[in-house]
Amino acid sequence: xxxxVFLLLGLxxxxxxxxxxxxxxxxxxTDSTDKEPSSEPxxxxxxxxxxxxxxxxxxxxxxxxxxxxxxxxxxxxxxxxxxxxxxxxxxTKAAVFTLPGTAWLHPVDLNGDGFDEYLMTSMTEGLGDWxxxxxxxxxxxxxxxxxxxxxxxxxxxSEVVFDRTAEIDWPNDSNFFDMNxxxxxxxxxxxxxxxxxxxxxxxxxxxxxxDGSISFDIPDVIEMPRTEYFYHKAHPADMDNDGDMDFVxxxxxxxxxxxxxxxxxxxIAKLEWFENNGVAGQASFTHHxxxxxxxALMELHDxxxxxxxxxxxPQYFNGASLVWMENPGSANGAWEEHVIxxxxxxxxxxIIADMNxxxxEDIVYVNHNHQGATDPSEQVxxxxxxxxxxxxxxxxxxxxxxxxxxxxxxxxxxxxxADQNGAPGVTHVxDxxxxxxxxxxxxxxxxxxxxxxxxxxxxxxxxIMVDTGTAMAGDHHMADLDGDGDMDFLWTIYGSQDIxxxxxxxxxxxxxxxxxVGEVNTNPAYTGTVEFEIQTSFGPDTxxxxxxxxxxxxxxxxxxQCGFGVIGNxxxxxxxxxxxxxxxxxxxxxxxxxxxxxxxxxxxxxYSNGQVSCNTSSSAQLGSMAVDYVLDFTAVx
Length: 637
Hints:
Elements: H1 3-9, E1 20-23, E2 33-34, E3 67-69, E4 85-97, E5 102-108, E6 117-122, E7 138-144, E8 156-162, E9 171-177, E10 186-193, E11 196-204, E12 206-208, E13 214-216, E14 220-221, E15 230-231, E16 235-237, E17 246-253, E18 256-257, E19 263-265, E20 268-276, E21 285-291, E22 299-301, E23 310-314, E24 322-326, E25 336-341, E26 347-353, E27 362-367, E28 382-387, E29 404-409, E30 427-430, E31 439-443, E32 450-455, E33 461-467, E34 473-479, E35 488-493, E36 509-521, E37 526-536, E38 539-552, E39 555-563, E40 569-578, E41 583-592, E42 597-608, E43 611-622, E44 625-636
Antiparallel strand pairs: 1-8, 2-4, 3-4, 4-36, 5-6, 6-7, 7-8, 9-10, 10-11, 11-14, 12-13, 15-17, 16-17, 17-20, 18-19, 20-21, 22-23, 23-24, 24-25, 26-27, 27-28, 28-29, 30-31, 31-32, 32-33, 34-35, 35-36, 37-38, 37-44, 38-39, 39-40, 40-41, 41-42, 42-43, 43-44
């Protein structure tokens, strides 16, 4: 079903029929759980419509939003003997919409009030026709009622711009620029994907209203040179310096297969640019094929400093993992391919950002792999960044591996079929906590987590798990959504769909994660030595290390560090609750390194006379592996 790639490279969002759906957030609860980052570092795609969108009356608001705490991260104790406090990121989750096929977001201020609306695409609204069983998608404008927030999340609405009756298959990531040379920006969407490959570029004309705001007309398409390819996001740029807006995109044609599933012709990726013919009031373009490269989420940037736009190109389907294509400087010249990296498997997305505050843009890059892939280079799933080498050195480089920094490796995909799913997913870059350093937010996609990788002053990154248990998380955007001065996230979750269980549309969500600022005591009051023995299917596995705990009323929280010979190194959380008699029940996390998965297992202990003691013998499941274990520690002030 190609679930993995589905979300990252193109999704869909559907909602109840009608022009507008509104959700009131005024009664939002604010229960939240402090989330403290782990301090161990790991070194930001059409068919022509056949009818106009529905103009049914406004639908009833959905039920009151839910709010729930997000998961708890862990942190190492401070090495400073003095007690010190540091700010940490705390997020509260609020469900804003439950629209099927939730996928991609593009922020744009449509009414000039200084607060962005979001162009949101749905890859599919639900069940379609045989043989794909995937229906057409939809497009919405998502907005906060009343515009700029003033201290609360407020209420949000989704307005239908087109629904499945427009017959736009698999609308994915979009952009906002003037396609028809009328001075008004338009909504531009790449369409199609592996299960619905007959894609193209759909554009929806922008209409300037009397108050200066922008609304949208009926979807249209531009003429394509072929119909059997699906297309990704269109990136606007004046490629020929004639004063009008051209665009660059990438596409892919599925491999040809025989009745037995054997590949008879390989898939083909294309990098293309569309030259604006400059006809006033018309979306008229001349097509140029740059090369047979790409097929993933690209970026435009002047890599060699010669004044024109080059292309930074992850490659998911074939070719080197990450390349850059050198612009020849003329409309009909030959582009040259240069390898940035070819050791990270399937390339997925590239983002331009200054990661080290040196005033020079860098490249943030994610792959999209699976731990069970047959190719070893496709088994490690990670987030990386590259410094762009000086222009004078570029011609002599075989790759940029010397400038590569690993932000994080260690995602895990529950789906066992490596051809069906992968991780990580859609990625963005921004300063989440206002410390002047660029952080990285990542959708797990095939991995069920939502992540922030928080940059430290030494340019290492700590992991913050914003949420877990998400199915096919998609695009997201960072902004101050409640007007309290800190950065929050609007996050789309594509969800699952099982037609055999009666799920005829994706079980999708649009969630907000509101950030609050808290303090954490980084100098634990209770420390000691931990002895941990686990009887695994490989035999006994032991580790000896340290434990660091804090007591807050009836709660115990902290971490332990030690190294098992087989299971691997541990730097994980310990939590517990103390009853009125001083007895403690809680959980300790165990990471199985070869599975890249962490599992909580129970422990019991006592708290008395300034001492926390544990001597637990029990059994548990570490995934599919049944284990017996003995945990022994004493932590004192």
